[in-house]
Task: structure prediction
Amino acid sequence: MLSSAALAQSAPAIPDADEVPIAILVDITSGQVLHARAADRRFVPASITKVMTLFTAFERIEDGTLDPRQTMTMRDETWQQWHGEGSTMWINAGDRVTVDDLLLGIANISANDASIILAEGQAGSVAQWTAAMNAEARALGMVNSHFGTPNGWPDEGGTFTTANDLVKLAEALIERHPDKFGYYIGRSGFSYNGITQTNHDPMIGRLRGADGIKTGFTNEAGFGFLGTAQRRGQRLVLVVAGVDRSPVRARAARNYMEWGFTAFERERLFDEGQTVGEARVQGGSARRVALTTDRAVFVNVPDGRVGELKASIVYDGPIRAPFERGDRIATLEIDVPGMEPARVPLIAGETVSEAGFFARIFNGVAGWFS
Result:
């Protein structure tokens, strides 16, 4: 990965960046890392942990094992342990709360008590819920993360993550669950039991296009933030961590985002559905398949260097049949001067079935002469 100093040579400096020990800013629409500092260093996420709880819940809603309309009860034991501990919805012992309200409380006022009720109510215990969180993390490729709690409460280092891993989580949250993301996340606050509390997100209502995700703080972790914003179809994801003061976190987060949206030329390379190239196929009814885009492809380029772009198609090939039209089977890698390459998924332009016996013989013979 390029150093932050190397990236800074290609674009104006980011105000307040030197006060942020860990940071990454990624354009997830192009796959580009715009800025990174210690992005693989493990740190304690504190309440940012709740983003994994939200993602796990969204996955359960999708597979039908969790229903936003169902209610869960605050057990006496849970109330005794979590009543008034940190950020809370102030749920009383014996209260029955809908999953919908629990998720809104977790997402917007960082409710520790709601996170525990959800974990116990859906999985049967906190331990079983955190096992599900860790399974989801592994499936997303979050190889440097582990979750020991549903809410990020200090657990002697059992919960940790990295900035790179949190970007993977945010991208999956937004792309797999856009409707749930839009409904549950990014509200200015939340009211429950007659108590209205404010969302501490440093960008919502203060930065154009900001729509979530989650702050975190403990004495052990310092101040952190996983956030996102979208303008004109471009979505940036930001992680900052290890900051020593809340005002610095807020100011730096907004500065990072403004820099990301304004410091580069944004070049449109391909339209959605456009054929970019083709790939060789092994054992299929066709010997080659067209590779297309599932989105309009943009790339961020330092001013005046658009002409230096280079692009290549990368895949493990030949690609083995069968596969369906729309399956992701290759990557468009775009080399940008002075920056990390942009990587955009490419999809199969058509379905290719497995070749029959005689077709496999023909393809094998034809391969000798190709």
